[in-house]
Amino acid sequence: MGTKLSVSLEGALSPETAPRTDRPSTFDPQAGFERPRKERVMKATWEEMEQFRLKPGQRDYCAHHLIDLMKCQTKNAPFAGHACDDQRGAWDKCEYEDHLMRIKEYERER
């Protein structure tokens, strides 16, 4: 929660050292790695995301896990609480790992 505020304050107070998050990286993303990093690909299609009415903030690399969770909740309604724990855990883990990767990329650029 505080990361967004600190990033925006850093960008305003010292723009020469704060990376631009709205542009591609200026450094080689493969630098420092022995093997090439795999390019991330979306597993959910735009049609699926439209069908499940995902909000713009939910249309990320973890959207396929969220769609699985929504399918499970629909199938097991109104008792979807514990029936969908595995899908919820997979989505939470994916979101956490995605967040960590974005923080690492930001620090790498910085």
**Which stretches of 5+ consecutive residues score pLDDT under 50?**
none
Largest sheet: none
Count the DSSP helices. 4
Query: Termini separation (Å)?
Result: 20 Å
Average the pLDDT over all residues and give the rounded result: 82
- Element-level helix/strand string: HHHH
What value does the Rg take, in angstroms? Answer: 18 Å
DSSP strand content: under 5%
- What is the count of β-strands? 0
Summarize the amount of helix as a percent range: 40-55%
Structural class: mainly alpha
**What sort of overall outline do the alpha carbons produce when their principal axes are compared?**
elongated
Task: Summarize the structure in words.
Belongs to the complex I NDUFB7 subunit family. This is NADH dehydrogenase [ubiquinone] 1 beta subcomplex subunit 7. It is found in: Mitochondrion inner membrane; Mitochondrion intermembrane space. By secondary structure, the chain is an all-alpha fold. The chain has 4 helices and no strands. Helix 3 runs antiparallel to helix 4. The mean pLDDT is 82.
Relevant terms:
4 helices
Brief sketch in words of this structure:
The chain is mainly α. Helix content is 51%, strand content 0%. The longest helix is centred in the C-terminal third of the chain and has 25 residues.
SSE layout:
Blueprint lengths: L1 H12 L32 H6 L11 H13 L9 H25 L1
